[in-house]
Amino acid sequence: MPSQTEAVRRLGIDYPIIQGPFGGGISTVGLVSAVSNRGGLGSFGAHIVAPEEIGVLRKEIGAATSAPFALNLWVSDHDPGGLHLSQEEFDRYFPIFEPYFEELGLEKPEPPELYHYRFEEQAEALLEARPPVFSFVFGVPSAKVLAECKQRGIVTAGAATTIAEAEALEAAGVDLIVATGFEAGGHRPSFLAPAEESLFGTLALTQIIERRVKVAVIAAGGIVDGRGVHAALTLGAQAAQIGTAFLACDESGTTDAHRALLHGDAILETALSRSFTGRLARVIPNRLYDELLPRAAELPPFPVQGWFVSRIKAAAVAANRSDLITLYSGQIAPNLKHRNVPDLMDALLQDLS
Amino acid sequence: MPSQTEAVRRLGIDYPIIQGPFGGGISTVGLVSAVSNRGGLGSFGAHIVAPEEIGVLRKEIGAATSAPFALNLWVSDHDPGGLHLSQEEFDRYFPIFEPYFEELGLEKPEPPELYHYRFEEQAEALLEARPPVFSFVFGVPSAKVLAECKQRGIVTAGAATTIAEAEALEAAGVDLIVATGFEAGGHRPSFLAPAEESLFGTLALTQIIERRVKVAVIAAGGIVDGRGVHAALTLGAQAAQIGTAFLACDESGTTDAHRALLHGDAILETALSRSFTGRLARVIPNRLYDELLPRAAELPPFPVQGWFVSRIKAAAVAANRSDLITLYSGQIAPNLKHRNVPDLMDALLQDLS
Lengths: 353, 353
Fold this sequence. Notes:
Two copies of one chain form a homodimer. In chain A, 40% of the residues lie in helices and 13% in strands. By secondary structure, chain A is of the alpha/beta class.
């Protein structure tokens, strides 16, 4: 199995293994550096990091590893109606969330100035910070940003959920395309058509994109162990992106309750929902999922929905509760085996050798 | 790559390649025998064949090939409300279809005695006909039927779309499990939970089922060439079931218009819909799909919906039209290459050698 692919060389890593970036505060410097120090590519989901903090983050990761790593941003930072709310709109949405705020002992919040940082400012800060790899989801950065990456030697990787998205990324000159199959946990990073209409299985998507574009393809979704990595390479991918298996490691920033569910004996079923942030994501259904499902039509757009839920989550996380947090998970969770990065990387590398 | 798997030996075939069974009149003796004669397993979708015709069909296939082949049935033959209709109910549903009947010059039909043959009678006839392999979807046959298969030396293969379905098939003593991923064309053969809640990608489903059950697993969905077969075997499958690539061959019973679309240069997008038979199936959207989509709530249950649409289809097929037929297709269609079974089998076997 030729695991020393062009993409591996380009990324400057030892093995064709990329840790999927996690948003929502569950990426950690410890996780990213643990993966990168073992020869994979660690990734930090920085879309919730303020522009002025991105340089600091980059330095923290750089202090923990001398190996390449990725910072990940969300190109599209809001959906229609999700950029600004009037106080009246804010007050109209709040009753949906009020019972949870009350249950968790939280006051009604003040509307923030921004519900999400602006991508352009984050990208500016990222260019300044010059991480080895800039990976992104939900769109294609401007030609100016991509040209700056090229000039500064930052490798770029964009996520595609359809053929058209892969072709758009290739046309823009992005270095690597992450073919993100339906099985993957977390957000479906679709940007040309609604996510609900952009659902390809990883097996099909990897092969189709690999045949349609010249850019190197990375397969994401449904990969948890060495045989999954082998299968991805067999299908024409040059590396495999692994999310849930790293999320379930002690080094990730999620809660013990979430980790216990991921490793649990109960047969896991995941579902796609817009209830958590306003954008479609794969999660383990819990009480918050069940209760918000019938109210889908009333929920505010991204990122407003995510802003409200993140307040609920913060209090629930503090209480190590799993009923009111977002339980991201890929479909492959039933096959999880390892509880920390060294064990997981050892197993993956043993299979690859 | 160990392509001489236990499942291949059990089936008595030469290569780990199974042609997916097609319902709706698009299976042909020529297709099945062409695949079996080349060392794969041809499969005939016999769920639309009358019990008294199943023995005849079995003899026709047996005359065309001395190699093993499968007859396929649908275990569950109706959904609630789909077994019998009163004349009043029939008349209430007809206006949905009336414009198409008029456009195609068809009279209003008389209600049939049965909208679908009864599975128990078909199974009885199949046992009598004794095909080498009995494959089935949409459920688990009774213990009596399965015991008869064992006694008569008929190998059994059942389709699973979830972990629970695979476990039910294993518990019943079925010989082989076809892990049918989300990418696959045609019907989602779910039987324990709604098909919409039973959507796993092939990459994830194959690995999960393989780890949960002891029975040999066959991967289906998203496989079109030798690298797909290799990937399936890498993931732990003992054979790969290939549907759309055989459907697109001249030997299948579909229309030239459908074949042209499958091979077309236009980027194919498929979608899941209940509009064609009342059960969820993956198709290429066309006019019938677009027009029935907003009327989903008014459509009759399976198999009544399929009965009405099959009348429309028959007239549309006669006119080689693609706007009013069911354009089954898997997600992998953009990667189709071959136009007949010898070319397709040659390419697959070259990759496997």
